[in-house]
Amino acid sequence: MKRLLHVSDLHFGRDRPELLSPLIDKINTLAPDLVAISGDLTQRARAAQFARARELIDRIESLVLVVPGNHDTPLDNLF
C-alpha cells in the first residue's frame, strides 16, 4: 500500500519559522511515498518567499508533488 501525506497552505511570508523543523522531522519520520503540497506556498508570490519554500521542500526526504495556489501568482505584475 502506498502512503500519501498532504500539506496545504504553507504561506511563506506569514509562517511561523519555529514550526518548520518539527514539521519536516514529522514528515521524514512518517516516510510517506509521496508528499503532496497544495495551495499557497507563499503569501504574496515574492522571490524570497519562494526561496524559503524551496528550502523547506529540499529537506523532505520523500518524493514531493507541489501544486501552487492563488497566492503564488503576483498581484502587482501578473505578466
In short:
This protein has helices spanning 20-30, 47-58; strands at residues 4-8, 34-38, 63-67.
Could you give a short account of the major beta sheet? 3 strands, parallel
Helix count equals 2
Rounded to an integer in angstroms, the radius of gyration calculated over CA atoms is 13 Å
The coarse overall form would be: globular
Question: Would you tell me the structural class of the helices and strands?
Answer: alpha/beta
In terms of DSSP E residues, the strand content is 15-25%
User: Total domains, how many?
Assistant: 1
Assign the CATH superfamily: GpdQ, catalytic alpha/beta sandwich domain
> Could you give the count of β-strands?
3
CATH fold call = Purple Acid Phosphatase, chain A, domain 2
Element order, helices and strands? EHEHE
What do these coordinates show?
By secondary structure, the chain is of the alpha/beta class. It is 29% helix and 19% strand. Strands 1-2-3 form a 3-stranded parallel beta sheet, with no helix packed on it. The longest helix has 12 residues. It starts with a strand and ends in a 12-residue tail after the last strand. The model has no long low-confidence stretch (mean pLDDT 93).
Secondary structure layout plus pairing:
Layout: E1 4-8, H1 20-30, E2 34-38, H2 47-58, E3 63-67
Parallel strand pairs: 1-2, 2-3
Descriptive tags:
79 residues; alpha/beta; Purple Acid Phosphatase, chain A, domain 2; three-stranded parallel beta sheet; 2 helices; 19% strand
